[in-house]
Amino acid sequence: MQKLLENQVALITGASSGIGFGVATSLAEAGASVVINYYSQPEPAEALAAEIIRAGGAAIAVKADVSDPQQVDALFEACRTRFGTVDIVVANSGLQKDASFVEMTLRDWNAVLNVNLTGQFLTAQAAVREFLRRGARPVSKALGKIICMSSVHQVIPWAGHINYAASKGGVQMMMQTLAQEVAPQRIRVNSIAPGAIKTPINKDAWESPEALQRLLKLIPYGRVGEPDDIGKAAVWLASDESDYVTGTTLFVDGGMTLYPGFEDNG
Ligand code: NAD
């Protein structure tokens, strides 16, 4: 049986851990050749590439800092050199540097905005340029697909994390504006907004039983998410099964955005 993403090439940024690692795994299982971008951890990225190749797929791991335009260009050049082009781009890299509003330094504000928002801008821009350069391919109805990794914090304010929440709010409007601009070229742009997914970024929120209990109060569906939950959503958004979907945020959050505090009449 033909796999959903057969003969397509996918680039996933920040894929040496957590959600990116899970998304790269799922896209490879769906038949895509994958470019696994990492920033600081070559070992898990190389190990994932080796695992995908062992399973009969194709993959490479490539180092790049997504907040640096030259490194983003080099990352796309690596896609072209190894696979000729790229069809699916998942702008996933992100980080948190938390502090109360009065204590937040400009350095930490900029560090988060530079990766979470500017990094996604640079990645999406390089993707659109590449899709337009190479033109249509018979592998998909769309010229190309971009998935931005947002967060429930594109809509839920988050005290103590103002840089992160602002970056994700920015991702929402960037994604929609870009989707509007490139839809006539048949480029689809969507976001996934994860709720609480078990990854290194939020270890403090699920590692101890007490923290986990507090977290579960925010999740009506009663479990913390896994990277695989996001991977499956990414496969659908990257495939022709969602060909009429663009400019949309798919919340994958176990109901976190359903105002669980109002469950018992507020
Ligand atoms: P993570 O820390 O495991 O992954 C983040 C990845 O981004 C890491 O691999 C890191 O190396 C990479 N990265 C950081 N700076 C980079 C840079 N300058 N260039 C390239 N890569 C860089 O955490 P995660 O939870 O897997 O986060 C992935 C994405 O999902 C982030 O955008 C995050 O905001 C988002 N998200 C996560 C959750 C969650 O609950 N885990 C919820 C909502 C949104």
Q: How do you describe this structure in short?
A:
This protein is α/β, with parallel strands linked by helices. It is 41% helix and 14% strand. The radius of gyration is 18 Å and the shape is globular.
Entry keywords:
41% helix, 7 helices, Rossmann fold, 266 residues, binds nicotinamide-adenine-dinucleotide, alpha/beta
Mind explaining what this structure looks like?
Helix 1 crosses helix 7. The chain has 266 residues and is of the alpha/beta class. It is built from seven helices and seven strands, in the order βαβαβαβαβαβααβ. The protein has one domain: 3-Layer(aba) Sandwich (Rossmann fold). Helix content is 41%, strand content 14%. The chain has a seven-stranded parallel beta sheet, with helices on both faces. The site of nicotinamide-adenine-dinucleotide has 26 residues, from helix 1.
Radius of gyration: 18 Å
> What molecules are bound to this protein?
nicotinamide-adenine-dinucleotide
Side by side, the strands of the main sheet go: 3-2-1-4-5-6-7
Q: Biggest β-sheet: count, sense, barrel? A: 7 strands, parallel
Quick check: average pLDDT?
Answer: 97
CATH class: Alpha Beta
Helix content: 40-55%
Number of domains as seen in the coordinates = 1
Number of strands: 7
Q: What would you give as the CATH superfamily?
A: NAD(P)-binding Rossmann-like Domain
Low-confidence stretches: none
Shape: globular
Number of separate helices: 7
Beta-strand level of the residues, as a percent range?
5-15%
Q: Assign the structural class, choosing from mainly alpha, mainly beta, alpha/beta, alpha+beta, or little secondary structure.
A: alpha/beta
Order of helices and strands: EHEHEHEHEHEHHE
The CATH architecture would be 3-Layer(aba) Sandwich
Oligomer: single chain
Distance between the termini: 50 Å
CATH fold annotation = Rossmann fold
